[in-house]
Amino acid sequence: MHTRYLQWMTLAILICATGRLLAASGVIRPGEPWFDQHGARIQAHGGGITFWKGTYYWFGEDRTPTNDLEKRYVACYSSRDLVRWKFKRQVLALADPEHLGPRWVLERPKVYVNERTGKFVMYAHLDDAHYKLARVMVAVSDRIDGTYAYVKSFRPLGEESRDIGQFVDDDGSAYLIFESRPTKGFFIARLTGDFMSVERTCFIAAPLEGGALVHYGNLYYVVGSHMTGWRPNPNVYATAPALTGPWTKFRNLAPPEANNYGSQSTMLLKVTGTKKTTVIFMADEWRPRALWDSRYLWMPLEMDDGSMHLPPPQPWSLNLKTGETTIH
Ligand code: DGJ
């Protein structure tokens, strides 16, 4: 018994130490376990990144198996280099807010900074076990890594809303992307002044989820995945000169046989350096039977005048100052 205990302890220490060493090397390893400062697995699935006062904050679904099964959790991590992440806290530990019943759903949380009101506003997909509610929930905090208080849930623009995505344009205006099955497409909707609601910007007639957006060069690029539940599929992208369109037809982000390297889009993060602007494709490799063990696939995209390509995942590093990336 004692020997087995020692063996487990040694293994746990080795795993933590390896995780810390990998992070310390400044290398992002797509698909490999990613650890926080305590050596615990990062729980930020279906997540979003908020850049605020020189620091990146990563929010996402916290699927830790020891969480209270009645509640849904959002964890917050901070980083200055996008590689080493400090666990701040579970910023949301929400009990069923709308009598949704067993196995209710809170997915894809995103946090926006409202410079005008000084509030931090979280949006997330809220649903019942059968995904019939199809709403967003809104929660608010006075601190970016403080406790978020539930405010309300609603259907944006009165439409069914499931997967959501987040986009903040270069001029600071904030947008919610949401998939809406009955309309066979998804919406880009600008947040109102107080961020408590949205107004229509554009509807894209393509039934895609995992929606993500970036403004790069003179074009907007939107990415999405097809509707195959937790299973990966070839993600696609389109471009437009303005958020209102016109949008091109959708093209594959990677060779279709690669099946998006087992991942599903969640966000596009732009890093503007002194020499280069890099767009990072952030995606989830879902493990539906053990969601806590789902992995993250982050890769720099190859961008060229209207085209966007996801290369095969490999370890890589980023020079935040210059914006340049190195494949290892
Ligand atoms: C695909 C979505 O992108 C995920 O966030 C999750 O809702 C699964 N479907 C559930 O099947």
Please give a handful of descriptors for the protein shown.
328 residues; mainly beta; Tachylectin-2, Chain A; four-stranded antiparallel beta sheet; 23 strands
Secondary-structure map with pairings?
Blueprint lengths: L1 H23 L20 E8 L2 E7 L9 E9 L6 E10 L9 E10 L4 E9 L7 E7 L7 E6 L9 E5 L5 E7 L4 E7 L6 E7 L4 E8 L2 E7 L10 E5 L10 E2 L11 E9 L4 E9 L9 E6 L1 E3 L2 E3 L6 E3 L6 E3 L1
Antiparallel strand pairs: 1-2, 2-3, 3-4, 5-6, 6-7, 7-8, 9-10, 10-11, 11-12, 13-14, 14-15, 15-16, 17-18, 18-19, 20-21, 22-23
The structure holds (2R,3S,4R,5S)-2-(hydroxymethyl)piperidine-3,4,5-triol (DGJ).
Give a written overview of the molecule:
- By secondary structure, the protein is mainly β.
- The protein has a single domain, classed as 5 Propeller (Tachylectin-2, Chain A), CATH 2.115.10.
- 7% of the residues lie in helices and 46% in strands.
- It has one helix and 23 strands.
- The strands form seven sheets. A four-stranded antiparallel β-sheet has the order 1-2-3-4, with no helix packed on it.
- Strand 1 and strand 2 form a beta hairpin.
- The longest helix is centred in the first third of the chain and has 23 residues.
- The chain is globular and about 55 Å long.
- The relative contact order is 0.12.
- The mean pLDDT is 95.
- The structure holds (2R,3S,4R,5S)-2-(hydroxymethyl)piperidine-3,4,5-triol (DGJ).
- The site of (2R,3S,4R,5S)-2-(hydroxymethyl)piperidine-3,4,5-triol has 9 residues, from strand 5 and strand 13.
